[in-house]
Amino acid sequence: MSIDPTRLEALLSSAADIALVSHFNPDGDAVGSVTAAYHYLKARGKRPRIILPSPYPESMAFLEPDDPRDRIVICEQDPETAHALVARADLIICLDLNRLSRTEYLENDILSARAPKVLVDHHLAAELDRFDLAISTTGVSSTCELLYWTLLALPDIAGDPARIGIRCAESIYVGMMTDTNNFSNSVFPSTFEMASKLIARGVDKDGLQEKVLSCYSVSRTRLLGHMVKDKMRLIPRHQAAYMLLSNREKERYHFKPGDSEGFVNLPLAIDSVQISALFTENADGGYIRVSLRSKSRINVNRLAVRFFFGGGHRNASGGRLYIPLEEVPAYFEKALDAYTDEEKFS
Ligand code: 5GP
Ligand code: MN
Question: Could you tell me the distance, in angstroms and rounded to a whole number, from the CA of residue 123 to the centre of ligand 1?
Fold first, then answer.
C-alpha cells in the first residue's frame, strides 16, 4: 500500500494538542484506531486526547491511555470537556467514519473548530471535501489497517513495524480483528501481511482474542440464544432474516454496549439466507439502530443508504429508523420489495 505521508507529517509536526474522534456507538475499529493513534502520538511527544460521542464496549477498556488525565472523554457523559477538547485542538483527526454526522453531538464542534481536519477511514462514499487531508480507501480491512500503513509511511517509523509501540500495535490488531470478524470478512493480502508483522512485533494474538472476543457475561450469551431461537424471523422470498431487540429484552438480559456484537452475522450461517438484519431499540427510545449484513454477492450498503439513513460497506452496513419497533417488520419487507436487483447485485 503506498501512502504519501508528506502532508500528514507536516500537519503532525506543527500540532501539539490533537483531538482524536470517532463515531457514535464506537466499535472495535473505532476504539482501536483512536487508541492506536493516541499511543503513537503520545510517544511522539504530542498531547493527544480521545473524544467519543457515546460509550464503547467495556472489553476494550484495556486499550485506554494509562495516564488518568488522558482517559477517553465520552461526550454523552461529559459534554463540556468533549466540546472544549475539540475547540482547543490544533489538529483534529477523525477515524473510522465516512460522514461527520456520525460524530453526532461533535459534528458542529468539528465544523466550527479552527484546527485543520484529517480523515482516516475505509468506508464507502467518505465526505472527502470536508477535510483538509483525507486518507481514505475501501481497499483495506479496517481503519486500523489503514492507520498501520499510514504509520509505516511516516518518517519516524520508516517502514519498520518494530518502531510501532506495543500498545499502538495491540490497538491496531484489535480494530482489524473485530472489523473482519476475526479474519472472516474484508480481509485482503495486506491484512494478513500486517497481522503477520504485528505478531512478529510482539502482539499477543491469543491474549487479545480472549480479552475482546471471549469476554461476555452469562446473560449476554443467554440473550444470544433467545434472539436466535425465539426472535429470528425469515423472509424466504427475499432470502432474508431479521431479529428485533427491544428495550424490554435489553433490560431483562442486563444489556451492555457491545453485547449484541456479532448477533447480526448468525443468520448468514443458514444456507438460504443472503441478507441479515438486526433492529435494536435505543434505550432513549428516539430511534431504532439498524445493522445489515449480506453474503458476498448482495450489496447492503445501498439498502442502508436508501431505506435506513445510513451506509457503510458492501456486505456490512448500518443506519437508523425513526418508527416504533412493531412497525419495523412491515417496513423491512417493503424496503426489500422496493430494493431492485440492479441495486442489490451492484
Ligand atoms: P454495525 O452493524 O456493526 O453497527 O455497522 C456496520 C457498518 O455500517 C460499519 O462499518 C459502520 O461504520 C456502518 N454504519 C453503522 N451505522 C451507521 C450509520 O448510522 N450511518 C452510516 N453511514 N454508517 C453506519
Ligand atoms: Mn471500521
Answer: 9
Q: How far is the CA of 319 from the centre of ligand 2 (A)?
A: 14
Q: Which residues of 200-236 are buried (b: 16+ CB within 10 A; e: fewer)?
A: ebebeeeebeebbbeebeeebeebbeebeeebbeebe
Ligand 1 pocket residues where CB is under 6 Å: 27, 98-99, 102, 123, 291, 310-313, 316-320
Fold of 6-213: inorganic pyrophosphatase (n-terminal core) (3.90.1640)
Beta-ladder partners of 244? 279
Ligand 1, pocket-test mutation among 27, 317, 320, most atoms within 8 A of CB: 317
Say which CATH class 218-344 falls into: alpha beta
pTM (2 d.p.): 0.95
Q: Which pLDDT tens digits describe the chain residue by residue (346 residues)?
A: 889 999 999 999 999 999 999 999 999 999 999 999 999 999 999 999 999 999 999 999 999 999 999 999 999 999 999 999 999 999 999 999 999 999 999 999 999 999 999 999 999 999 999 999 999 999 999 999 999 999 999 999 999 999 999 999 999 999 999 999 999 999 999 999 999 999 999 999 999 999 999 999 999 999 999 999 999 999 999 999 999 999 999 999 999 989 999 999 999 999 999 999 999 999 776 899 999 999 999 999 999 999 999 999 999 999 999 999 999 999 999 999 999 888 899 9
175 CA from centroid of ligand 1 (Å): 15
Alpha-carbon distance of 178 to 25, in angstroms, equals 14
Ligand nearest to the CA of 322: 1
Indicate where the chain has its CATH 3.10.310.30 domain(s).
218-344
